[in-house]
Design a protein that fits this description.
This is Ig-like domain-containing protein. With 419 residues, the chain is mostly beta strands. It has helices at 268-314, 333-338, and strands at residues 2-12, 17-18, 23-32, 37-42, 50-51, 54-57, 66-74, 77-80, 84-86, 88-100, 105-106, 111-120, 125-130, 138-139, 142-145, 154-162, 165-168, 172-174, 176-188, 193-194, 199-208, 213-218, 226-227, 230-233, 242-250, 253-256, 260-262, 264-265, 322-326, 348-352, 364-368, 381-386, 407-412.
Length: 419
């Protein structure tokens, strides 16, 4: 009689144990009397897993993976078996990414991403991705980014793969911190800015952490105009016209925006009023100028007429003498009888004076004489001429000269033949 000895464990099936399959562990031992009690244990676990010569695990998982042993016992004693390994193979699990350094990541530094996963057999392929980018960024268990920039900010994850499957990790955010970039100013309202309205200037900048200080400046003015992301100008005037810019700052730096022009226009009503007043003033100036010119011309005309009237009344001046050269005189029937047409070769001249004044009392006379001395005078012919003056505009009548002051008399002395 003896206690158990040569206690051992067999595993079935003996090949690869894949997650989800069934596994049977069997305990054997030499003993006399035979073993009457079997107890199953898993290494690192103090409490028994099962009892009986066989231990059957159905739908095995990765958690069942480990080393097992059995305890054989009879009335003379007990004995533990050697360890038997149950190697459950499975696809990747618990895939994750770690970032080094773990603190703040500043633009220009280097960052390393490392992928880890629970898998059996161990992973044989790692692939790195950045969210919003479809193509892979890198391969290998670690992904190193040197001289990191703000464009590298984003979410990253890895894909872990073995022969039983693959699994993506959860994403990790790489937060690259940097000073302000792309600082700019917007103006609201964006259209025409009319005097009297309110205008808001807004400063925007790409920065991480966000900009914590905004300062507003107007060109040609050294001191700041305001602070804060928005600068509001209420009841704007023409004096507010000019170019404005903002300065954006965080703990990593500062950057000025490009300047934006604020052009303040006068109110339309004021412009219309100014234009209307200008037009009225111009019209008044033109009317006044025309009136002054007309008065001046009227004064000059009245003065000239008065001078002419005075001169005519005094009988000192003949107005506008008119000379008429006469050739081939047409003789009256009486003159034709007394003149010898064959010898009439010389020219005759007539001097005619007229006056535009209605107050001319004395008739004007015209004397027509031959150019050669006369020995005798024959019949004297008189001709009465009347001129219509523009100012008086008298009618032509047959009345005597006493009733018509503008009547002209002409004495025609025919030329006689030389003897």
């Amino acid at each position: 009689m003896y206690a158990p000895k040569n206690t051992s464990v067999t595993v079935s099936p003996s090949g690869e144990i894949v997650e989800g399959s069934s596994v049977t562990l069997t305990c054997s031992s030499e003993a006399n009397p035979p073993v009457d009690k079997y107890t199953w244990y898993k290494k690192t676990v103090t409490s028994p897993k099962a009892s009986g010569q066989s231990y059957n695990i159905t739908n095995i998982t990765s958690e069942d993976r480990g080393e097992y042993y059995c305890e054989a016992q009879n009335e003379y004693g007990r004995l533990n078996s050697s360890l038997a390994s149950v190697d459950v193979q499975y696809r990747p699990k618990n895939t994750s990414v770690s970032v080094s350094p773990s603190g703040e990541i500043v633009e220009g530094s280097s960052v390393t991403l490392t992928c880890s996963s629970d898998a059996n057999p161990t992973l044989d392929k790692y692939t790195w991705y950045k969210k919003t980018v479809s193509s892979p960024k890198a391969s290998g268990q670690s992904y190193s980014i040197t001289n990191i920039t703000s464009e590298d900010s984003g979410e990253y994850y890895c894909d872990a793969e073995n022969k039983y499957g693959r699994l993506n990790s959860s994403s990790v955010y790489v937060d690259v911190q940097y000073g302000p970039k792309n600082t700019s100013v917007s103006v609201s309202p964006s259209g025409e800015i009319v005097e009297g309205i309110s205008v808001t200037l807004t400063c925007t900048s790409d920065a991480n952490p966000p900009v914590d200080k905004y300062t507003w400046y107007k060109k040609t003015v050294t001191s700041p105009k305001a602070s804060g992301q928005s600068y509001n100008i209420t009841n704007i005037t023409s004096e507010d016209s000019g170019e404005y810019y903002c300065d954006a700052e965080n703990k990593y730096g500062r950057l000025n925006s490009s300047s934006v022009s604020v052009d303040v226009q006068l109110k339309q009503s004021l412009v219309s009023g100014v234009v209307g007043i200008t037009v009225v003033v111009l019209v008044l100036i033109l009317c006044l100028s025309g009136f002054i010119w007309f008065r001046k011309k009227s004064s000059q005309s009245t003065s000239n007429e008065g001078n002419i009237r005075d001169t005519q009344n005094n009988g000192q001046t003949d107005f506008s003498p008119v000379y008429d050269n006469v050739s081939d005189m047409v003789m009256t029937s009486t003159a034709a009888q007394t003149a010898d047409t064959d010898d009439q070769d010389d020219l005759h001249y007539a001097s005619v004076h007229y006056s535009s004044s209605n107050e001319q009392e004395e008739p004007l006379y015209s004397t027509v004489q031959s150019s050669q001395p006369q020995k005798q005078e024959e019949e004297v012919q008189y001709a009465a001429l009347k001129f219509n003056c523009p100012s008086a505009a008298p009618r032509l009548t047959t009345r005597g000269a006493e009733e018509e002051p503008s009547m002209l008399y002409s004495t025609v002395i025919p030329r006689t033949k030389r003897t």
